[in-house]
Amino acid sequence: MIISQFGDEFETLQAEIARGPIFPCVTPDEIRSYLASRYDFKKTRTLEEVISDVEQMLRTWQVQVTHPRYFGLFNPSVTLASVIADTLVAMYNPQLANWRTSPVANEIERHTLGWLTAKFGLPATTIATFTSGGTEANLSAVVVALTRAFPDYGEHGLRHLAASPAIYLTEEAHNGYNKIAHMTGLGRRALRTVATDRHLKLDLGDLERRVAEDRQNGFSPFMVVGTAGTTAAGIIDPLDEIGRFCREEGLWFHADAAWGGAAIISPKLKHYLSGIDTADSITCDAHKWFSVPMGCGMFFCRHPDRVLEAFRVDISYMPKKTDQTVTDPLMTSVQWSRRFIGLKLFMALAQHGESGQADLIEHQTRMGNVLREALDASGWRIINSTPLPLVCFTRDGLVPARFLATLREQQVAWMSEASIGGAPVLRACITSFRTTEADIHWVVDEMNRLFLQDSGQSMSNQTVAIPVQSTSR
Ligand SMILES: *Cc1c(COP(=O)(O)O)cnc(C)c1O
């Protein structure tokens, strides 16, 4: 089939992307007027022409997240198998609302999720579903946890509850919980920000205090979120201890491992996630560290009856189940009509095998260590402490925002700014299995050069600025 010949083209495109640029220089107006002038949708064009124009736009007007020097926000380089999978899905267009319409797609997802369920150490009775991403998986976790903690929630809603429910997480947890608290009707104030220790990990003592205090004050604590790989600094919360505390207190333990969860398949890294097997639910995004295209999130829950209770529907027009061992996905998911999300992970695993997929993760982890050491050796200060390939750093005299702009303009690398303890720092995350040691050393050398140049300039600015200020006074 033609699609299997796509491999050469894929490599050519990756090589072309690697030649740069990484960062686009464009204004909204430029793109808007281009689109307005070419696409009024009255004139027709050949498909070849449209494809070529769209590719040209994608190459010039976006941050190239698959570039080896994109050190960004968990947006991975993608594997060929997973790209072909997404194309096949679009072509055959299976419907994953129910089982009967797409038996094979259902069973491929079940098979793939069963493999990862076992890796996480969850029981075989766990219900797992593919989601649009981590946010949908986290939303599912909150809805199911509410359903278990408050039997009246499903039929009568939050307003029927005697006490206000509360969720515990740290400031480093994903910001999406704010939206989830808003959408579920919990309200954003239901989120309790637990203090972190000096390594930015959830402080268990503070968690205990906050839960006890809330109980005394008539609130209803029901859920604790432990993050495995925080967005800003890659921190792994003490999952073991959170699990133990939640069991003792009868609270739901949700492990948000959207990015870091993939480490579970690496024999070298999995011990960093110790305790994740005690979670009531887990979020893991294949579209982050499994190097497949967006969106490919996953939700795992060890309480199948609560999942089925939370998402149940009674429908007459759906094909009836004949086999009690199958569950229609719409009964276990926020989504109804659903794309065959899981094929990209299945095909990547089928091609590379478990160990090949682990190699990709371990390589990026090694590159993270190379980056950390190279920065440290040339006078940068590392701010965060994590085994995952995410480095937050700064140095005296650095203005992060200005320095980042220079790095981007000069196409050195794409990095972001993070706020750690209220102070802005640079954040570089290795998200591409294509990033090499040579890439990293080149970037660090360039940063050293630019920093010297930059601090030289601001020194001379300062000597000019002071007399000007004093005369104007
Ligand atoms: C990325 C991320 C999310 C959100 O996932 P999306 O796939 O972007 O919806 C939630 N939690 C953590 C820890 C993340 O890294």
UniProtKB/TrEMBL annotation:
InterPro entries: Aromatic_deC (IPR010977), PyrdxlP-dep_de-COase (IPR002129), PyrdxlP-dep_Trfase (IPR015424), PyrdxlP-dep_Trfase_major (IPR015421), PyrdxlP-dep_Trfase_small (IPR015422), Pyridoxal-P_BS (IPR021115). GO terms for molecular function: carboxy-lyase activity; pyridoxal phosphate binding; transaminase activity. Keywords: Aminotransferase, Decarboxylase, Lyase, Pyridoxal phosphate, Transferase. The modification N6-(pyridoxal phosphate)lysine is found at residue 288. Its cofactor is pyridoxal 5'-phosphate. Pfam families: Pyridoxal_deC. GO terms for biological process: carboxylic acid metabolic process. Belongs to the group II decarboxylase family. This is Aminotransferase class V-fold PLP-dependent enzyme.
